[in-house]
Design goal:
Elements lengths: L1 H14 L8 H36 L5 E7 L2 E6 L4 E5 L9 E3 L5 E3 L2 E2 L1 E2 L2 E2 L44 E4 L5 E4 L7 E2 L20 E7 L2 E6 L6 E5 L5 E4 L3 E4 L4 E9 L5 E8 L3 E5 L2 E5 L9 E8 L4 E11 L2 E3 L3 E4 L4 E9 L3 E4 L7 E3 L10 E6 L7 E9 L5 E7 L17 E5 L8 E2 L1 E2 L6 E8 L2 E8 L5 E7 L10 E7 L7 E3 L3 E8 L4 E5 L9 E5 L8 E5 L3 E6 L7 E3 L1 E2 L6 E4 L3 E2 L4 E5 L7 E2 L13 E5 L6 E3 L4 E7 L3 E8 L5 E6 L1 E3 L2 E3 L3 E2 L1 E5 L4 E5 L1
Parallel strand pairs: 16-22, 24-30, 52-54
Antiparallel strand pairs: 1-2, 2-3, 4-5, 5-6, 7-8, 9-10, 10-11, 12-13, 13-14, 15-17, 17-20, 18-21, 19-20, 21-22, 23-25, 25-28, 26-29, 27-28, 29-30, 31-32, 31-35, 33-34, 34-39, 35-36, 35-38, 36-37, 37-40, 39-40, 41-42, 42-49, 43-44, 43-48, 45-46, 46-58, 47-57, 48-50, 50-53, 51-52, 53-59, 55-56, ...
Helix pairs in contact: 1-2
Length: 696
Amino acid sequence: MKKVFLFFASAIAAAGLGISCTDLSGIEERIDTLEEKMASMINSVMALNENVKALQAFSQSGQTVKEIRQEGNVYTIVLGDGSVHNITVENGPVLLDVGIDEEGYWTLDGKRILSDGEPVKAVGEKGDKGDKGDKGDDGAAGNDGEKGEDGADGADGAAGKTPIFGVDAEGYWTVKYDENEEPKRITDENGGYVLAVGSAGGDSFFRSVTVEDGYLTIVLASNPDKSYRLPIEAGFRIEVASDIAAIMPGETVDIPFEVVGSDASTRVFVETHGGYEAVLKEGAVSVTAPAELPADGYVILKAIRNSDSSIKAVCITFEAGEFAYVVDAQEIAKEGGNLNITVTTNLEYSVSIPEDVDWIRMAPQTRAVITEVVSFVVDANEGARRTALISIVPVQGEAYSVRVVQNGADDVIFEDVDLASVAKFMIGGTTAGEAQVEMVQTLENEDVFAFYGDLEAGEMHVAMLDSENAVLGAVVPSEGTDISAGQALAFDQDFVDSGRHWAIPSDGKYRVVLNRASGEITIYDVATDLQPWSAVFHINNLEANGTLKTTITDKIYLYGDISWSGKAVALEQSPADPQVLYYKGDALNFTRVNFKTGVSAADFEVIAEGKESINVSRIYTFAPSDKSLCVSINGGKDTAAPINVGEWTPMSGGSDWQRGQYFHPVDRYDGDTPHFQATKVKFILDLRNMRVKLIQ
């Protein structure tokens, strides 16, 4: 360093001969800056030489690793020969592209470094084996003496040289191979000297250091394709395949482990946290998860070797097990071919093909343990249509089945029909008993067909028929067999005997609603079924918030030109929704109408506890919701809003206050004058959406 400093100081002094005293502060400032740069350069050169020494050591054949320590981006590596090397990874200095070629010679920028015109070996070579010993003299009995021993192995060849890089007083790179040598300047490919100042690249000499499968792998930054892979000597440790395990709530999983370097004094212990239970077995720890997985649960395996007081431990954490696959059924052409089933999981699983199915077999897998795509080979089918169930069984949780359907030699591929052309939808399968059950086309929506009634446990599909009762095919699940009670499910079309179906879980009453426009079907069980509409009546002589309520089922009154008293008419509930009511009565001659319901007080559920006396409006009325449309009728006693035939008209409901408001039926207008011709009519009261429609 002294030599370098004198060079810069002399240069500055010479430059200062022509500078006045007033400029000294600037000179001192530049001297400080140059000293900082030179100190940084010297530190960089020292780190470079450390990395070069390590590079040479890693190149020696038979080299092993005893210990690895890391502090920031500096790794301390203790090799099997006892040498200790500190290497810098990421943000370490790379001032020269130094390496070792395939024949063991030092290189600079990919070209061999010369010393006295000769390339320099980085890796020493072993000497030749000694010559075989001479044959011994004859023995006394006339026999040959014992055979002479082979000669000893030759001595090791000369050790490889380690370059020592430096920077001379004028800022040029130098190299020498012994501390006592005079350094020589490094030349570039044109024979010119290489300046060190300003040539630092700022990248790392080594790109990465990784430990995997019992090996230390070191990759050069200057040549990512070049790496050094050194075996790690077996020390005392616990090895597990992974320190993160997938587990399902309440399930048990065995986690294999191995204690490397154990002896007779070694003992293994297990600790748990977060509700997990663990039991040690031969070569594994059996872990049972709690019913609800905690956010911070873990298991610690600890090994103690008493002979030298060594302690090693590993912490295993857990993630929720997941298992999903894309389809429940696959259709294969009669020609056969490959069948791929995509599985998304973090659990191990197995695949089961029934023993009597010889036309499906596993395809060669390209991954081990867990695969994302399970591949099968399906043979060509020269016979009838055939099916098989393939089971995918995770180590935890329930097994899953995929139905494989292969078309027969004479089968025709199903082509979807236009659902608008379907005249009838029929509940079919074992759930419908001996005969199919027709679904009813609803009045409120011509695209909605519904069934409400008893079904048996079993398989269900929906057959499609044309106007002449010819079977067009069947509505079947897009995936799975689960009805997902109360949820709208997408459906597909297929042959009636395709085997694709919904599974009705138990005998009971069900509501099945099919919407051919949206391509969805909803299957309600008792627990999820839609409920009738409830009317709420206000109690007059109790607290302001006191209420009574009753359920509207099948009775409602038409009121207007027809008297209210005692003239209830029968209404039907829509099979798709009990809050949609139909009146399909005889021809009516009226100019005004509203809809009323009423029951006796004995039928009410009293929500104001402790009160016996009630005085309540016993009439609940549905009438126009837009009062601004109402006009005076009946000599000014009442008001009415138009209800146009074939259109939905908004309505609202309440007790008592709407008695004097009506709908005025209209099927045509003369200018602004509405007219209605009495005829047979149908009313649809959609109480869920508070609207009404008049149909002729």
